[in-house]
Design goal:
The structure is a single chain. By secondary structure, this protein is mostly helical. It has 2 domains: about 30 residues; about 40 residues. Helix content is about 85%, strand content about 0%. The protein is built from 2 helices and no strands. The radius of gyration is 26 Å and the shape is flat.
């Protein structure tokens, strides 16, 4: 069996599995629900707090990486 034939058979097998994957996605979509306003606001606040926290950590690292070497070298 050549490499090209093996690759073609693998692609054909993936295409055959496609209806099963679509069925699984549809089942998950049927089980999901739309969040109410209170749940949405809570998730939004937590997400915003985490974004700010990650930004603050990144800014702190940036300041340390730019100011600390200058301070250690004695350069004004």
């Amino acid at each position: 069996m050549r490499f090209d034939e093996l690759k073609l058979e693998e692609q054909f097998r993936k295409v055959q599995e496609l209806p099963d994957i679509v069925r699984e996605y549809l089942r998950i979509l049927k089980l999901s629900r739309r969040p109410d306003k209170e749940e949405f606001m809570q998730v939004s606040k937590i997400s915003a707090a985490m974004i700010l926290l990650v930004g603050l950590i990144g800014f702190t690292i940036y300041v340390l990486m730019t100011a600390l070497p200058k301070a250690l070298a004695g350069v004004p």
